[in-house]
Every structure is written in structure tokens, then in C-alpha cells.
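The data are quoted verbatim here:
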Amino acid sequence: MTTEHVDDAREIQQPQASRIALTWAGEPGRMEELTHGMLLDQADRAAAALARLGVRAGDQVAVHLPLVPESVIATLACGRLDATRITLPVSLTVPELVARTREPGARVLITADAAFWDGAIRPVKAALDHALARSGSAKDRTVLVVNRCARPVSWTPGRDRWWHEALSEG
């Protein structure tokens, strides 16, 4: 058997779904690997969660996440629904977030409770909460919160929902 045939045989034995698609190293000591199958499954579940929240083709979804796997998953989910991902970088200040969230559009926002950068835990959701309060645009919006840091997080009942719970429904 030639090397070419051996490589073909390996490809048949290891379907694409089991290959690593994403490797993420973030918080101290935290590393995640997602296979193609895992990534696509989470994207399907995220798309279903967004659809249950009323996101349809042409709608906007605002994503205020650090560089974490859920950011990629949110992008794929938006693609599945033909929705537009609007990126709200976590480096934006509250006044910048106010200006960006005042614009009509995204009824669903995806954020993280907090994130690690520059060696410290930084609030992410708190900045978005302040911006939504100051812009007066929190009404009729849903905020999906990705749990990245084990710490208390401010919560607005009826508006805020945990990402992992939304993905496990349905």
C-alpha cells in the first residue's frame, strides 16, 4: 500500500467531525478543544436558541464577547439563521457602547459575565448593563450571558438569560 492509500484510509477512519476545529487557551490554566462535530452541534443549538428568541433571517445579533469559543459559535449560529452578527468589542468604553446600543437593530445581545485579560478579571456584562441603562435601549431585548468566570454577576430578571441554559432548551 502506498503512502497515499494509507492517508486515504486514515481519512475514512477519522471522519472530519472528530478532528479538532478549535483550540482555545485563555484564562490561567484553562484550555478548550472543540472538534468539528462539537462546534457544529453547539452552533446548531445556539441557532435554535436564537430562533426561539425571535431571531430571523436579516435580523441583527449583537455580540459583546472576548475571544472565547462562544464567539465563534455565535458567529456560526448567526450564519445558520442568515442573521447579521454585530460585533461590540469588549474594549469599548461605556460611552462607546451607549452609542452602539442606541442604534436600532439587535434585540438579542450576547455577552460574557467577565473575562481575563492583562492578567486580571475584567467585567464585561457590567459595562454592557451600564450602556443599556444609559442608552434607554434595554427594553424588549434579551441578553444571553456566557459564564466564563466564577464570580457574581448583576442580573436583570426577564431580560438576562444564561447562554448554556438557552442552548440546552428545546
User: Anything to note?
Assistant: Strands lie at 20-25, 31-35, 60-64, 84-87, 108-112, 114-117, 120-123, 142-146, 160-162. The radius of gyration is 18 Å. Confidence is low (pLDDT under 50) at residues 1-14. Residues 19 and 35 are 5 Å apart (CA to CA).
